[in-house]
Design a protein that fits this description.
Layout: H1 9-12, E1 20-23, E2 30-33, H2 43-56, E3 58-61, H3 68-76, E4 90-91, E5 94-101, E6 104-105, E7 108-109, E8 130-139, E9 147-151, H4 152-157, H5 161-167, E10 171-174, H6 180-186, H7 195-200, E11 204-207, E12 209-211, E13 218-220, E14 227-230, H8 235-249, E15 255-258, E16 265-269, E17 273-277, E18 287-294
Parallel strand pairs: 2-3
Antiparallel strand pairs: 1-2, 3-16, 4-5, 5-18, 6-7, 8-16, 8-18, 9-15, 9-17, 10-11, 10-14, 12-13
The structure holds N-oxalylglycine and manganese (II) ion.
Length: 299
């Protein structure tokens, strides 16, 4: 149980907020309407939010006209926050926020412009990947810019019994650097990493099937972006198995496609889902702020 109940008596006993959790007409996801994350949230309301996150894996808090400090404070109630390795794109004065944006100012990118161009789970390349991430819309394009979420519990459950048996004991390597140079060649603004940054992102070995530490449900845990090989298999067999798992894991029947509305704050569970940025036309501006909650060692 990672979520922390507030110890502050004023917050614990704050009056209830009247909000609704509405499941999407999709395999995964729900919206929360009527909550203001910048106002005190009492323990009973927080428990409802936490439950909705575990049940739906991605929750969309609608209409959050809140500051970066509110976003950070709310995120912290779920656990300590990560500072992203690309410190170039931290929000000034708020290092827990990573700017995700395709905008350039004076020829310089203001944020990570190609976040999520391959399916992934945030920070799976570290020994302790992220619990979840909260992405807050600041500026949205008039077209495009959707984010897709694929339920990896459903993906696991839909594997044939033979394939489940084969992959259950396997481990795989995840590497931040797997696609870095390729992305850098397409997006020359991607910084050349310093040795200190490279040292921070040494590859990690993860189970191919992980167990959600709070719900006990199994989930597939390999991704096109970061998973490089299955440990102990010859390269050709590893490539073939990963290609099969990648294709399976993002079938439309596991996917919710989020079309962003102004001031949406989207909170997903990296232990249950993979996500993908569908892409934004270059000439349209898109800017979001992300916080990333630390997680546990997968098992
Ligand atoms: C991220 C990410 C996808 C998007 O911020 O972690 O993958 O649609 N973003 O911006
Ligand atoms: Mn991401």
């Amino acid at each position: 149980m990672t979520a922390v109940l507030s110890s502050d008596a004023g917050t614990r006993n704050a009056p209830p907020q009247h909000f609704e959790v509405r499941r999407f007409d999709a395999p995964v996801g729900a919206e929360i309407v009527g909550l203001d994350i910048s106002k005190p949230i009492n323990d009973a309301d927080f428990a409802r939010i936490h439950r909705a996150h575990l049940d739906h894996h991605v929750v969309v808090f609608r209409d959050q006209q809140v500051t970066p400090a509110d976003h950070v404070a709310f995120s912290r109630r779920f656990g300590p926050l990560e500072i992203h390795v690309l410190h170039q794109f931290q929000l000034k004065g708020q290092p827990e926020i990573l700017i995700v944006s395709n905008i350039k100012e004076n020829g310089e990118p203001i944020g990570l412009g190609d976040a999520g161009v391959y399916w992934h789970s945030d920070i799976s390349y570290k020994p302790k990947p992220s619990l979840g991430s909260l992405l807050h819309a600041q500026e949205l394009p008039s077209q495009g810019g959707d984010t897709l979420f694929a339920d990896q519990h459903l993906a696991w459950e839909a594997l044939s019994p033979e394939l489940q048996k084969r992959v259950l004991p396997l481990k795989a390597e995840h590497s931040y650097l797997a696609k870095y140079e390729e992305l850098r060649s397409k997006n020359p603004w991607r910084p050349k990493l310093s040795q200190a940054q490279i040292d921070q992102v040494a590859p990690a070995i993860q189970p191919v099937v992980r167990t959600h530490p709070e719900t006990g449900r199994k989930a597939l845990f390999v991704s096109e972006h970061f998973t490089t090989r299955i440990v102990g298999l010859p390269q050709d067999e590893s490539d073939a198995l990963l290609a099969e798992l990648f294709a399976h894991s993002v079938k439309p029947e596991f996917v919710y496609r989020h079309h962003w509305a102004p001031h949406d704050l989207v909170f997903w569970d990296n232990r249950s889902l993979m996500h993908l940025a569908a892409g934004t036309p270059d000439e349209l501006r898109r800017k979001l702020y992300r916080t990333t909650i630390e997680g546990d060692t997968p098992f």
